[in-house]
Amino acid sequence: MNIVLFHSTYGLRPAVRAAADRLRAAGHQVWTPDLFEGRVFDTVEEGMAHQEEVGRDELLKRAVLAAAPYSDRGLVYAGFSFGASVAQTLALGDDKARGLLLLHGTSDIAENASVDGLPVQLHVAEPDPFETDDWLSAWYLGMGRVGADVEVYRYAGAGHLFTDPDLDDYDADAAETTWRTALGFLETL
After folding, report:
1. Whole-angstrom distance between the N-terminal and C-terminal Cα of the chain?
2. Stretch 51-62: mean pLDDT
3. 152, 185, 150, 154: which is closest to 171 by C-alpha?
4. 26 CB burial (10 A radius; 0-12, 13-18, 19+)
């Protein structure tokens, strides 16, 4: 499977590279675009300030340009938190997308979005300050309306970015369950 994996608001950190290596070890081709052009951050606040400074349109443009050389192959779009929102936006706009793997995040759904049974898997903490229950319910219904085939996995007591071993949010059990489930999902695509 060809996968483009987008980083979180912290930037392209070691955990993203390790995730890509894990996917490669399972036989997948993986690209990890650096939307922040080398910048990494120690806090969510610093990363979000950088996102605002660069601007959502510019970040999406960078993501599209990074994925474009591979999109004819039928990509699986994947991402962590902010990167998941980017992955979702691109996948819903790419009629050749093979799947969408969302880790710790979702995004608004474009009004004109339409997919034909796009397989989507979401892994998110419960509760999650960035992905509230009301938001996730509305998102799930919205994704169904646009034609996505969605699976949601919630991890009680885990922190927001629970798959990143370098952050306080890390939850080893939840992370291992996530990766085992995600790898199984990718095998079905």
Report:
1. 8
2. 97
3. 154
4. middle
DSSP class of residue 160 equals T
The DSSP output letter for 28 is -
The 10s digit of each residue's pLDDT in 144-170 is: 999 999 999 999 999 999 999 999 999
Closest CA relative to residue 166, chosen from 4, 5, 8: 8
Please write the tens of the pLDDT for every residue from 89-131: 999 999 999 999 999 999 999 989 999 999 999 999 999 999 9
Indicate the pLDDT class of residue 65, thresholds 50, 70 and 90. very high
How far is 46 from 75, CA to CA, in rounded Å?
Answer: 30
Q: How far apart are the C-alpha atoms of 45 and 55, rounded to whole Å?
A: 15
0.85 surpassed by pTM: yes
53: amino acid identity, one letter: E
The answer to whether residues 67 and 39 touch, using CB atoms and an 8 Å cutoff, is no
CB 94 within 8 A of CB 75: yes
N residues, the chain: 189
